[in-house]
Amino acid sequence: MKYFLNILFLMSFAGSVVGSEKRNEIIVFKANVGTLNANPLRYCDKKYIDFLNDQYGMQCKYNEPFLRVFHPTIPQETQEFHLKKEFIEQITFVPYKCFMYNDKDPRESDRFKQSGTVLLSFFKEVQNENRQIQIQLTSDFETMKPKILLQQFKEMPQCNPGNIFNENGDLLVFVDTTDLEKELCEADIVQKVGRDYGYGHGKQKYEQWVNGYFGEEIKAKQRAALFYSRLKKLCGFSIAAIIAYLVYQKFYATAG
Q: Is residue 21 predicted with pLDDT exceeding 60?
């Protein structure tokens, strides 16, 4: 009898171990980036970036580029469906740096993460338990280099609000960028270039500016241009002074 009770005790302990392993199991979702030609890098709004930093601990900067992600449909009436609706679908744009294979700055990286690797990982409370949730990348960038997308973004910066849902929680087809364009200009992340069409008309062109992702490079060019301008001005004064002195000397010698 004592032997039988010991077996029951061990069996109950084993069951609790299996249960705890199941509770600690990582919840995995998928994401892809679609066709890159139709999915350029973009600046996002401060509100969305604050949301990612506060809710997912991503530590994004306000002037870094983002890449839109798409989450495949999963069956309804499942725990995963509700978790996707609550946590995953809110992540519409992911910082470009998260796609780098070696976690470097995209300006210094030479390759993307491969399909099947972890794009993002975070912890959320699920049924009163702190569970790890992963988003795995399902896209293959093939021979594309990170700097190619960066160069396109540098030459033609674009933007998109991160919160692109209607009142029913469905993704919007058309998104008004008027407020975001104004926000980015006021923050000196981009500035208008060419004819002024105002904000949100789809015709206005923008260029990278001093507080943007390439801000340090722009500031360096500005300092170099200022130095050259001052040097040119100084040299111009010097040459004018030399000419004036030579003319004076010639006139003085002739008068004498």
A: no
